[in-house]
Amino acid sequence: MKFLPQSFGAKLLALFMSAVGLTQFATWAFIREFNGTQARELINDELDRTTRNFARVTADRNTLLAAAAATAARDYAVKSLFAGDDDATLATALKSIRISSTADLVAALALDGKVRAATLPGPVPDAAFADLVRRAHASPDASAKGYGLFGGELHALVLAPVHAPDIIAWMVVGFRIDDAFARRLKEQTGIDLTFFDPAGRPLATTLAPAVARDLTALLPSLHEAASSEEAVLAGTTALVRIRPLAAGGARSGTLALQYSLDEKLVPAEIAQSRQLLVAVGGMIAAIFLSLAFARGVTRPIVELVGHTRRITRGDYSIRNRSYRTDELGRLSEAFDQMSLGLAERDRVRDLLDKNVSPEVAAQLLRDGATLGGEEREVTILFADLRGFTTLSENLPPRELLTLLNRYLDRMSAEIEAHGGVIDKFIGDAIMALFGAPVPQGDAARRAVAAALAMERALAKLNTELAAEGRPPLAIGVGVNTARVVAGNIGSQRRLNYSVIGDGVNVASRLQSLTRTAEYRTNVIVSAATLRAAQPTFNTRPLGTVAVKGRAEPVEIFAIDA
Amino acid sequence: MNSNPLPAARRRLLPSFLFLCLLGHLGGAALLPASVVRVEIKDGKGQPVADAVASLVPLDRAPVIDVPAEPAVIVQDNEEFSPTVTVVVVGGKVVIPNRDKVQHHVYSLSPAKRFDIPLYKGEMKDPVVFDRPGIVALGCNIHDWMAAYVVVLATPHFAKSEAAGTAQIANLPPGRYRLEVWHQRITAPVVREVNVSSDPATQVIAVTLRELRQIRRAPETGGGAYR
Ligand SMILES: [Cu+2]
User: Chains A, B: CB contacts under 8 A, how many?
Assistant: First the structure.
């Protein structure tokens, strides 16, 4: 019995939990996906910005260096050195230019690209600047930018012409791309940078050695066409972008930009864990809500179940005190009305029991109160209180009724004790049936025995009355057995189970014959009854009598105690 | 010479022109029959090229170079050289007077003639003598945009193209010549052999020019424009 509310609660709980859980999980998954995409987009934007920033910073610096170098080359003496063939002096002039222009590298080239002097320790091959010279010749402003590797160090280079006033020579200026330069770029965008030589060896980086090592190992597997690629470097996931270092010319190395995806996702992770917390809180709230709701629903139901049990036992006193306005409130109300209805029916049944014999009442309840009938053999007993008229004159009505009821009660008890059914009371007279509505094989014998028992009961009552100082009562009983019509007799609104037919009149007539003094008996039965009863009684034939409305006379017998 | 497609007006002028030449050059080949080569210089798009220098170096004989007594003049006016292109024969003299109120420092770092005349105004003391053939680029150490060329030739037969892109070289003795065209923006000099007696007198030369790769004069940004 206990499992019902638990089961309902469990179902409700499961429903709530799955609804809340699914919603929260879907939201969580969606936001996670969204955050991941968003973080990648943000990082790619920042990588774009850094790529542009690197190009701009390099170009700006190159332009400034070129301008500084051009200013230095304006000097007539410097021009003369460029125009002459004194390479040793030219080399020293380049030192001055390097200092004044804050460049890291200055070189002087003949118009055909031959390297004449440079501020580098060793000799520099012509090929180092050949690409720059070729591009400068082709460009309208006779200059070119690029990168170069000198002594294992990467340099951003710019080639500028020396005018006199035509171009008579070239000057290369450059700055070193080292860890410090990379760090300055990182300060501007927060993106890590690593510069590799064409062989994939790192030249400058902002990364910790372990991360740089992993990146170097990974470099050959990365693609320059990709906007960025995911890579695990020293345990953290980062988005890495690689681009060739070329500045329009031949490839001089690789630039790798990267940003830690894990780092970018930290705020999102915090938000996600908070959301998870909220989800768990929501689930707990859902548990309590569903349990409370289940209890709210099941308690009245359990109460109703209890009430149903009590009603089954016949206790209609319970009223559901429900102030609910929902379906359960209406159920309670309906239940109360049903309870009231049942109580009413029970009261009616009680009254029925008192007014009709239990057998009739039962039959009525079983078959319903219908008009109809059947012909059957029934033994009819009529009993009449003799001298009642005299009695009623001498007694006050209340006492009279009490006495009459006392008499009827005793007589009824004897009839019912013998299986008879009180058909009706007609004033002080009793009409009883044996073998109807329930058929009885020995109905006639029972009726006769009941008549004799009534005599004895009356004698006992008379003893009591005598003790009370009241005069004794006398009765006459007539018993007849005949085929009669039995059924519910009356109107649609009011019905009585009864029997009709000639046999009933005969029984009534036999009863009235007991007044005949010469018969000296209180009980007269018909030959039909006697035949049916088997002669176990003291019978005394009284001859035949005519009965009004009957062609044949009736043979009657006295039954003596 | 008779198949010469010169315009009628020029043909009428030709005898008197030749007469004047004979007066000027009585020695050498003066008595030989002379003719004219007209060089039409066009760029890659077919547009006429002005200020190009066409010269004819005789291949059958040594050229007879007569150095003019008067120097050529390149003035400095409004912080520019004028004219931009001057042609002289080897040994030719050039004066570069300053007509501006400001000083100039004219120089050349070209192998054919290296010289510089530090800050000066007005006339030069001595003309510059160009004694080696070649292209000499003149600049000013103060004004980077100032540029002029002196084309020093080892032949008396040359002409500078006009706005119409035509350079006419007259008074040519018959024979084979090396025709050479130079321009300050030319990517490479154009050389062609021409037989004045048999080849057409009009030579059409297509040249490839590049961008002017000199320092440009920036527009004035304020006062201080002395002249
Ligand atoms: Cu000047």
Answer: 40
Is the Cα torsion angle B155, B161, B165, B168 positive or negative in sign?
negative
Residues in chain A within 8 Å Cβ distance of B141:
76, 79
Cβ of A83 within 8 Å of Cβ of B215? The answer is no
Residue B71 Cα to ligand 1 midpoint, Å, equals 21
Q: In Å, what is the CA distance from A345 to each residue of A336, A342, A350, A354, A495?
A: 14, 5, 9, 14, 18
Ordered alpha helix ranges (H), A75-116: 76-83, 87-101
Architecture label for domain A58-177: 2-Layer Sandwich (3.30)
Q: Which residue of A has its CA nearest to B184?
A: A166
In a shared domain, residues B186 and B166: yes
What's the CA gap between B118 and B121, in Å, rounded? 10
User: Per residue of chain A (561 residues), what is the pLDDT tens digit?
Assistant: 444 445 677 777 888 788 888 888 888 888 888 888 888 888 888 888 888 888 888 889 888 888 888 888 888 889 999 999 999 999 999 999 999 888 999 999 999 999 999 998 888 888 889 989 999 988 888 888 888 888 888 999 999 999 988 999 999 999 999 999 999 988 888 889 999 988 889 999 999 899 999 999 989 998 888 888 888 888 888 889 998 887 776 788 899 988 888 887 888 888 888 888 888 888 888 888 888 888 877 787 887 888 888 888 877 777 766 667 777 778 878 888 888 888 877 777 676 666 566 666 666 666 655 546 788 889 999 998 887 777 777 788 888 888 888 899 999 999 988 888 888 888 888 999 988 777 778 888 888 889 889 999 999 998 998 888 888 888 999 999 988 888 877 776 777 778 888 888 888 888 888 888 788 888 888 888 888 887 677 888 888 888 777 778 888 888 877
**Cβ B144–A165 below 8 Å, yes or no?**
yes
Question: Last residue of some domain: B112, B129, B154?
Answer: B154
- Would the CB atoms of B109 and A80 count as touching at under 8 Å? yes
| Interchain CB contact of A166 with B (< 8 Å) | yes
Instruction: Specify whether B121 is located in the same domain as B195.
Output: no
Count helices and strands in chain B by DSSP H and E runs: 1, 17
Mutate to test the interface with B, among A159, A163, A168, A170 (most CBs of B within 10 A): A163
**Min Cα separation A127/chain B (Å):** 23
- For the structural domain made of A369-560, what CATH number should be given? 3.30.70.1230
* Residue B81 sits in the same domain as residue B132: yes
A387 dihedral zone (left: phi>0; alpha: psi -120 to 50; beta)? left
Residue B127 lies in a domain: yes
Amino acid in the structure at residue A529: T
Residues A79, B109: C-beta atoms closer than 8 Å: yes
The answer to whether the Cβ–Cβ distance between B109 and A140 falls below 8 Å is: no
Which pTM does this prediction carry? 0.59
Strands B202-206 and B35-42: parallel
Our CA-based measurement puts residue B199 at a distance from the nearest CA of chain A, in whole angstroms, of 36
- H or E segment and range at residue A241: strand A236-245
- Chosen from B208, B209, B213 to mutate, greatest number of chain A CBs within 10 A: B213
